[in-house]
Amino acid sequence: MKNKKIYFDYAATTPLDKDVLKKMLPYLKEKYGNPSSIHKFGREASAAIDNARIQVAKFLGCKEAEIIFTGSASESDNLAIRGLIKSLRRAKGAGEKIHIITSQIEHKAVLETCNDLEKEGIKVTYLPVGPDGIINIDDLESEITPETDLITIMYANNEIGAIQPIKKIGQIIKKLNQNKEHRIYFHIDAVQAANWLDLNVNELGVDLLTLSGHKIYGPKGVGVLFARENVKISPIITGGAHEFNLRAGTENVAGIVGMGETITKIKNQKSKVKSIEKLRDKLIKGVLTKVKGSKLNGPIKDEDKLPNIANFSFEGCEGEALVMYLDQAGIAVSTGSACTSQALTPSHVLIAMGLSDLEAHSSLRVSLGRYTTLAEVNYFLKVLPKTVERLRKISGR
Ligand code: PLP
């Protein structure tokens, strides 16, 4: 029991793929040149970045020149939103209104960026979601005005796995943009979707798309922003001509190499969707039958959710305490977003779905991945009911 080490937090981060690490290592050791240098060392590093750009562009079905490497998905979200707004402001001139539509359940990298822009006078509409965590297309259409410049919606949610109707939104925007001088831009945060859903940018009809290396078995500290050729964004980090003048700073060569390599492996993983779904369903069924007062949060239908995330609420249990007790039993889970789980405010995602503060505080996210086994799920199902009981006794419920 003591030596158990079960990782059920793949939505927070994924282990680095061994083959990916192998490809990265030379760029941390002997191939250490600065890609901006014109000598052999530099050219070697710069060629590695070019190769990674080809790999990512192939995955997204876009041009290499449309791929910008950043330091994280949070940075990519910021560059997409702030970069576009900055460029629009300059083009439109002061006094012209700017309107963004997003949802209430976005990752904080989008949500807080929008909050921040609101303070600068930009109008932001935060779309509500249903109890399943999915936005209503009619709500979206009714909020679009002639002033709407940007729609930014996440493809799949990191806490509940809910998938948003991105293709449909893409089609609506495309139609609205026809015969119009004014253009609506479409950004999606595809960080959690990348392992499971097709991300061909033309089929989705998106202008800007965000990815993160460490959620797809690549390294931490590297992100991608796809920015369509004819979409003008301004840099938010200045100081060099790197990344087509859109992101200054010497490139994280090894990280970028890792990003390119890991992305080529995603296709193989897609064949594993069914087996992950099976493990997840066994886990969900087990939890709901073995733990009284437990409830599944998020979409019900398979087509509306990612195959690897399950979010529960346990009556009379503090989510944070549950995480700590399970950790003692060797099981790593979380209460929601890794970035906000240290805060004591209840999850904004669960609250937007209509859960009470109490229900949101009693939530637990279990996220599975490439290396999850049936034995791990069974062990979890053995430990969880006892842990919940123990906690309920302590809190006198
Ligand atoms: N967007 C989503 C949906 C996420 O789940 C995360 C990470 O939790 C991020 C953005 C931020 O990613 P990064 O850690 O690369 O900044």
TrEMBL record:
Residues in Aminotransferase class V domain copies: 6-380
Cofactor(s) demanded: pyridoxal 5'-phosphate
Keyword Transferase on entry: yes
Catalytic activity field: (sulfur carrier)-H + L-cysteine = (sulfur carrier)-SH + L-alanine
Enzyme Commission code(s) on record: 2.8.1.7
Record keywords: Iron, Iron-sulfur, Metal-binding, Pyridoxal phosphate, Transferase
Family: Belongs to the class-V pyridoxal-phosphate-dependent aminotransferase family. NifS/IscS subfamily.
Cited PANTHER family: CYSTEINE DESULFURASE, CYSTEINE DESULFURYLASE FAMILY MEMBER
The protein's name in its UniProt record: cysteine desulfurase
Organism per entry: Candidatus Portnoybacteria bacterium RBG_13_40_8
